[in-house]
Design a protein that fits this description.
about 10% strand, 2 domains, four-stranded mixed beta sheet, alpha+beta, about 40% helix, Lysozyme
Length: about 210
């Protein structure tokens, strides 16, 4: 059985949101990827990523009066997976969750389709379940702005709950807190694949 990869990326400190990634091999042969140097492990690789952008000095608007759903239109030369970037950046700053991480979740959850609906009832860009959407204050899950802000807020809640462990954050987002608690980690093969896929896109977007 292949060893489970462990990704430990701490999102609690803004200054390391886009930090370099250090790849180690643990004593039991597992792989650990951390955003900070760690002692007692064999260093395999260091991936250099761009430093976090300086925080804007402008006050961010916390609410908008909008009569219609926010669904950005395509612009010439603007690909569908970039058209929500401005909303993602705003939500990222508000809830202190890395832009690249939020965008990676959207990439895997809905492929940037604001009208996506899963068989289980998950809705919109970040595939929010009805109960999650309601608890995050999302009234219209198919409004791009509401969905992204609600999903990013939920990622912030999970980040605090699991102390920045990306394995558990994504496992809970995908499979629920109950499954994570029962299995004491990533519960299902599908969820392991989900975690790996999101992390791969997170690294890609971090390096752009």
């Amino acid at each position: 059985m292949a060893k489970l990869f462990t990704f430990l990326v701490v999102f609690l400190i803004p200054s390391i949101a886009f930090a370099d990634l250090y790849k180690y091999r643990s004593k039991d042969g597992g792989i650990i990827i951390s955003s900070t140097p760690r002692k007692g492990l064999k260093l395999i690789e260091v991936t250099r990523t761009r430093s976090a952008a300086k925080k804007s000095t402008k006050t961010m608007r916390t609410a908008l009066q909008k009569p219609e759903r926010t669904i950005p239109t395509y612009r010439k030369g603007k690909k569908k997976y970039d058209r929500f970037d401005s909303i993602i950046r705003e939500a990222s700053k508000k809830y202190n969750v890395p832009f690249a991480f939020v965008k990676a979740v959207i990439r895997i959850e809905s492929a940037f389709n604001p009208t996506a609906l899963s068989h289980a009832g998950a809705m919109g860009l970040m595939q929010l379940m009805p109960r999650t959407a309601a608890s995050m204050g999302v009234k219209d899950p198919y409004d791009a702005r509401e969905n992204i802000f609600g999903g990013t807020k939920f990622l912030r809640v999970l980040t605090d709950r699991y102390k920045g462990d990306i394995n558990l954050i994504l496992a809970a987002y995908n499979a629920g807190d109950g499954a994570v608690a029962r299995y004491k980690g990533i519960p299902y093969p599908q969820t392991r694949g989900y975690v790996s896929s999101v992390f791969r896109w997170y690294r890609k977007y971090s390096e752009e």
